[in-house]
Structure formats: structure tokens, C-alpha cells
Amino acid sequence: MPTLTSISLLLVTTIVICIIPGPDMLYIIARSTGQGRSSGIVSCLGIATGGVLQTTAVALGLSGLFLAVPVAYEVIKFAGALYLIYLGVRTLLSREEMLAGTGSERTGLLRAFFQGALTTLLNPKVAFFYLAFLPQFVDPARGAVPLQLLLLGLLFNLVSLSIDSSISLLASALGIWLKRHVGAAKIIQKLTGGILVGLGVRLAFSSRQ
């Protein structure tokens, strides 16, 4: 069990990290603005689930594969980039009704959840972040290191989820307001697709540093 001091430092650092705009925040804003509150919140849950799975991989030592086999990092990175670009292009080419989430609500929310999870799981830079960040708060003298990493990763993702959900609610409210204006829905669609494509391109050309 990490010390209370370590946990407190982790929580404070997590808040600072999460309020700084980054790829996850842009993704959540795009989804929430374009598809509404439910889709945005479910996307946040998907991202958090992906984050927990990534921290589990770190705790089990699986993320070290990216260090030992650089080609594995590149394969996952480009798979994630292509997936984000695919989502962006699909959004850009879809009808406004499709963006708004017509059809089965349950199917749409499940899709939003899995898309959020995959955007995290297919981003090896997230694994590298956890690999560098979480061990700083571990005390080997206070128990099994893997269990401490799992606990710290869970706390990190719970705090991230609360912050991301708040951002999602604000973005969805903005989306509702914008859609009341003529032509705004089409602009939101283009903006959402553009952000997703941009995130994919950014990931594709990013380095491991």
C-alpha cells in the first residue's frame, strides 16, 4: 500500500495533468459537442477503461515490450493513428443525422464506449506515460509493486474520469447551444471530424519521447 503522502501527491499531480489540454480532452470535446452528453460521458468511461487496462499492462510488465521490441511500438502507434483517422473521415462523410446518433441509442453508446477505449489502448504513448509516471509513487518497502501500480493507476483514472466527465458536460451544453443556430450542426460535424483526423495524424508522426 503506497503511503498517504504518495497518494496525495499522485492525486494533486493527476489533477494538474488532466486540466492541461491534450489529445484525450480534444477527443472528449469533439465527441460531446457533436454527439451529445450521453455519448461524451460514455466516451469518458471508455477512455478510463482503456487507461485501467494500460496500467494493468504496466503492472504486469507487458508495457516493457515496447522498449524491448521497438517495432511493436510502431505497429500499435500506426494502428491507433489509422483508427482515429478512420473515425474522423467517417464523421466528415456522414450525414448530420448519423452524427446526431439516430438509430439504436444503446448501439450508439456501446460504439462510443469501445471507440473511446480503443483510442487509448491503441496509443502506446499512454503506456509509456504510465511506465514513467506511476513508479515514482511506489514504495517497494510497503508491499508488492504490481499491486501498488494497479492501485495508483486506478486512482489516476478515477480522477481523470471525473475531470473528463465535467469537460464532457460543458462541451455537450455548448453543442446544444450551437445546434440551435442555423448551419451550426454542419460546422460541428466538420470540426469533430477534423479533430479526430488531426489527432490521428499527430499520433502517426509522434516519437516515443
Fold and architecture overview:
81% of the residues lie in helices and 0% in strands. The chain is built from ten helices and no strands. The protein has helices at residues 4-19, 23-35, 37-59, 64-68, 70-93, 96-100, 105-121, 124-133, 145-179, 184-204. Helix 2 runs antiparallel to helix 10 (184-204). Residues 97-103 have low confidence and may be disordered.
> What Rg, in angstroms, do the CA atoms define?
18 Å
- Helix-strand category: mainly alpha
Order of helices and strands: HHHHHHHHHH
Shape, per Cα inertia axes: globular
Instruction: List the uncertain runs.
Output: 97-103
- Binned strand content: under 5%
**Major beta-sheet overview:** none
Mean pLDDT: 84
